[in-house]
Amino acid sequence: MLSGKRPISKICCIGEVMIELVNGRHGNITLGVAGDTYNTAVYLKRMLQQKHTVAYCTALGTDPYSAKIKEALHNYNIDTSCIEIRTDKIPGLYAVDTDADGERSFTYWRSDAAARTLFQPPNKISFKTLAGFDLIYLSGITMAILPPDIRAALIDFVHTFKAGGGTVAYDSNYRPKLWENQAVAQDINTQLWQLADIALPSVDDEMELFSESTQAEVVARLQSLGVTYGALKQGAEGPLDLGIQHAVAENLTQVSHVIDSTAAGDSFNAGYLASYVLGETSKSQLERGHNLAAKVITHPGAIIPE
């Protein structure tokens, strides 16, 4: 456990959960529920089971698809007490198409989704609601969908939460189309890396966002911002420890055939965070993250069967 942090029993993942349409190889379309921080919440709860509370914070509507999302959260035993309800909004939707190598492409319908109104008045779910948790997990997608004034207020809250002994975990999960421009994305993500107790970036996202060409450049920048704990995700190469111990993962599952890389990073984050919360070593955190992701990418869709 990081120094100066309170014990972790209650975790909140914050962001957008959507309806997912997966276009199968034989033309069949499967309807599901997914979203980056949601995927992490589901896998995190699976790994921690009943030992810890995992909540999801978002905004949904009163439509049948919002009801389907809430049903999915309940089925995965995720706390839904932090969900804002908007009678005039519906959840976002995205479709996934996967090529022969398992790489996926996305088409989104999310510009007017309920999640974009999170923390905005009139609201029952506020930053005060989040203060009761021990660990909060959010991503660059969480930040990108919010208007600038709410982003700034959320960053202010994260400062206060961290100062009070809460643990902050962050993944930039860079999606260029969600941001106003690259400069804004760089600014917000830089602030979050400075605040993150546990940094969980992907090397490809960071190189694209900050126009870097090597892993070494990414690591040097993160370290200059004060990152001292976490993992740099590098796909099949395995994760790089960002902690001062420089742990090395050894027992890594190798995948010969990727079915669908959806949620690879999200599931890695869940495995890593679960291992951290359970008090395991940095080496185990890296291995649990990688091996869960390796399992997930051999199945179609974001959430695989238990």
Radius of gyration: 18 Å
Helix content: 25-40%
CATH superfamily: Ribokinase
Q: How many separate domains?
A: 1
- Listing every helix as H and every strand as E from the N terminus to the C terminus, the arrangement reads EEEHEHEEEHEHHEHEHHEEHH
GO molecular function, one term: 2-dehydro-3-deoxygluconokinase activity
Organism: Epibacterium ulvae
GO biological process, one term: D-galacturonate catabolic process
Keywords: Kinase, Transferase
Would you mind describing this structure in some detail?
With 306 residues, the chain is of the alpha/beta class. The chain has a single domain (16-296), classed as Ribokinase (UDP-N-acetylmuramoyl-L-alanine:D-glutamate ligase), CATH 3.40.1190.20. 36% of the residues lie in helices and 18% in strands. It has 10 helices and 12 strands. The chain has helices spanning 36-48, 64-75, 127-130, 140-144, 148-163, 182-195, 203-210, 215-224, 264-277, 282-296, and strands spanning 10-14, 18-23, 29-34, 53-60, 83-85, 93-98, 104-109, 135-139, 167-171, 198-199, 231-232, 240-241. The strands form 3 sheets. It has a 6-stranded parallel β-sheet, with helices on both faces. A 4-stranded mixed β-sheet has the order 3-2-6-7. Strand 6 and strand 7 (104-109) form a beta hairpin. Helix 1 packs parallel to helix 9 (264-277), helix 5 (148-163) packs parallel to helix 6 (182-195) and helix 9 runs antiparallel to helix 10. It is globular, with a radius of gyration of 18 Å. It starts with 9 loop residues before the first strand and ends in a 10-residue tail after the last helix. The model has no long low-confidence stretch (mean pLDDT 95).
